[in-house]
Amino acid sequence: MADEILDSLPADYLRGTFIGRVQSPGGPCVVTIENGILHDLTPVAATVSGAIERGMLSGGNAIGPAADGLPTGWRLLSPIDLQCIKASGVTFALSAIERVIEERAMGDAAKASEIRGLLEEKIGSGIRSVVPGSDAAAGLKSALIEQGMWSQYLEVAIGPDAEIFSKSPVLSSVGHGAQIGVRSDSSWNNPEPEVVLVCNSDGDVLGATLGNDVNLRDFEGRSALLLSKAKDNTASCAIGPFIRLFDDEFTLDDVRAANVGLTIEGPEGYLLEGRNDMTQISRDPLGLVGQCLSEHHYPDGFVLFCGTLFAPTQDRDEPGAGFTHKIGDVVTIHSDRIGTLRNTVTTSRDAPAWEMGFGEFARNLIGRGLIDKI
């Protein structure tokens, strides 16, 4: 189990502070890593959301050096629990073009290649050069409407309002090492490597982790009204490995400069590599947090996927058919300052069932005498 921890942490983990969750034989536990030492925070704060909300981010019982791994019988979970899981979409120019491609291809991957070339020629440079919500963006919108090139995806790409949606129910995300799921009836899908911001109920950003916003391009391409079916399925939301908390060594500026790498290793020997360069994002992360918070209140805090530059177009099986997952794909998402999130693809039908909802979670804490630490 030592490798599971060390392989997931960034190289400079000795200078960072991390919080996460593990499954122990008795139930979920909150753990921290400070100065390279793993602590069980559960006796002090039994939820990550509570620890963040109350600022109880240190202390607990020392387990030992993180380099020694987790105790026997423990495994990593998603590092969040009661926070709402939100996501922002179409925050990069390339992802905007790809969403329009899905829409115009009606979810048919075979039509995507031809449409991609046309749209990149017509709108690629324009989208990259304007600030969303600006007068220049409004002018580009008018010009594209006149050319018959406008789309609902371009509205959220360059308009004043970002796309913000609920990605997955509370307590449903999976962590590092878990299986991730795509619907068994999807024929065009992909991972989305993203930075995930971790916020308290006031909307203060206190740290960041990595996420895989697994997406079904065929479903969303047929209709944007199928977004929930494209995004929210069993095991379709992976987050981890740990939350790296902001301090003098790691700040929001490190998030803004993050380069998130992605590798997909297929069971047939297929290899795809990509990256999500946060310096190319169209909307600043704090602006996305503000739009997510809006007039809402999240009493247990929230996490926010920032969107991705990565949109795989490399053919896998047939020329022009692009990329789609196969069962057994190993997806690795890595950022030098945040860590590594690795998952293996299965179907949502065959992935382990989501069983610990809030009722079971509360009963477990009651049984362990921890309900007052929530």
UniProtKB/TrEMBL annotation:
Q: Does the keyword Hydrolase apply?
A: yes
Q: Which Pfam families match?
A: FAA_hydrolase
- According to the entry, every stretch annotated as the Fumarylacetoacetase-like C-terminal domain falls at 171-345
- Highest taxon of the source? Bacteria
Entry keywords, A to Z: Hydrolase, Metal-binding
Q: Which molecular function GO terms apply here?
A: hydrolase activity; metal ion binding
Return one Gene Ontology term, BP aspect: small molecule metabolic process
| Similarity field | Belongs to the FAH family.
Q: What is this protein called?
A: Fumarylacetoacetate hydrolase
Organism field: Pontixanthobacter luteolus
